[in-house]
Write the structure tokens for this entry.
Amino acid sequence: MTILTSSASFTIGDAVTETEQLTISVLPAIGAAAGKGRLVHPTLGTYDYARAPDQWTNMDGDAIIAPTWASTRTLGGAANTLWKGNIRDVEVVERWNADGGLSMTVDQLRMLVAHWSNPPDPAVSRVRWYPSYVNANGYEVALVSLTSGGGDGIALNHVIFNEAGYVNFDVELRLRILGKL
């Protein structure tokens, strides 16, 4: 097999050497999923989920942090900027679906309501969240929204749960990540 090679040197011009620098995030190895999820409230204590969520967004081996995009109009068109996002911009959604008829126990929903409706002062302490159904990490979070019964509020009545103590409708919990533990 013949190999052809060629090389040459030539001067393009005297230019200042420029250096480009780029920060690349290398995702960590995913910790083994070994649970159903956990919330640790500073006054209510620890709650281990009775059932893991069926769906979740913005979470995998770690929080999925979207880049930040900004655009402004200029005389010549627009100036666009894109930079690395921040973990405090991440909102995670946990969703328990009632596709099969039951999303979770009424007791689990009541515990989520208790954690959501009693927010601690974030300057003093924060709720800790461990999504152990997907990774082994822990986060400080603010519980920003909880819905059940298909509306914007929380329905806790005989229509949404059955005699066996299960919720018949979807439940959705939104958490804002404040920091990583």
About this structure: The helical segments are 106-117. Residues 38-180 form one domain. Residues 7 and 108 are 71 Å apart (CA to CA). The two ends are 58 Å apart (CA to CA).
